[in-house]
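subagent[fold] <- orchestrator: predict structure for attached chain, return tokens only, no commentary.
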Amino acid sequence: MSDNQTIPLKRPVNVPDFVLKQQSDVPQKKETKYPSEVIPLATKGWFYPEGHPLCSGQIEIKQMTAREEDLLANQELIKKGKVLDKLMEALIVDKSVRIEDILIPDKNAIFIAIRRLAYGDEYNVSINCPSCDKNNKVNINLSQLEYRKFDFDSYPKGKNSFTFKLPNSGIVVTYKLMNQIDEQAIDAELVQIKKFSKENTAELTTRLKYVITSLDGNPDKPSIRKFIEDTLTARDSAALRKHMRDNNPDVDMSFDFKCAHCEFERRLDMPIGATFLWPDLDSRG
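subagent[fold] -> orchestrator:
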């Protein structure tokens, strides 16, 4: 996969089911009942250890059926916040892939592909203009989303590790791409923090405590936490977060926005709302 490439699907999403054929060039662990699609991962599989089912840089997902739509409507799963993970689990063909191991950039790529295969490339959203605050009905073409440019060859394959020198303190920080286990741990810690202080969410510092893996080569977790709580300056924190945001492999979720009511034009981040995987909500007014 070349840099700055659109996220490909090997066939048009609007081809009827009875015409679709399973990919013949991909080894199958077992024959699947429904049409499937092989998609490249945002990370190219670069940061998974050797032997991991995702180190090949691609994953096979099957097309959503009415059974999976039932999952999306399951109120118990929705309340528990597990509906999207259950959906992904159901659609990934290789059952040796553990959802919690998938790096967040790859989960983003998989969800985009699931949505395109199920409901097509047209995504209708409402956006208030950042300038005049008037509402705009925007149609986003999901087939035009691209993977961010990233120099994979600058990083050792099979190791989820990145470095950045903090501009103020000069400390070299090592950090990682997060997976669902990290996200769940962050959420659980934030819940505990809010129980003691509703005014202080500590979301930024809590996230950094999980993403940073060493300071000047020292991986001691208590030392990392103490540094973030007591020593990390706002300047260093902002620089690190900007670096991580701008220098990681992921899906570029931005699009060109032009306000229909004023002259405002800018590239904005695509909002992921309820209609992303529930597009029929558009027709409910």
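orchestrator: received. Logging for downstream: Residues 154-246 form a domain with the rbstp2171 fold (CATH 3.30.2220). Residues 11-32 have pLDDT under 50 and may be disordered.
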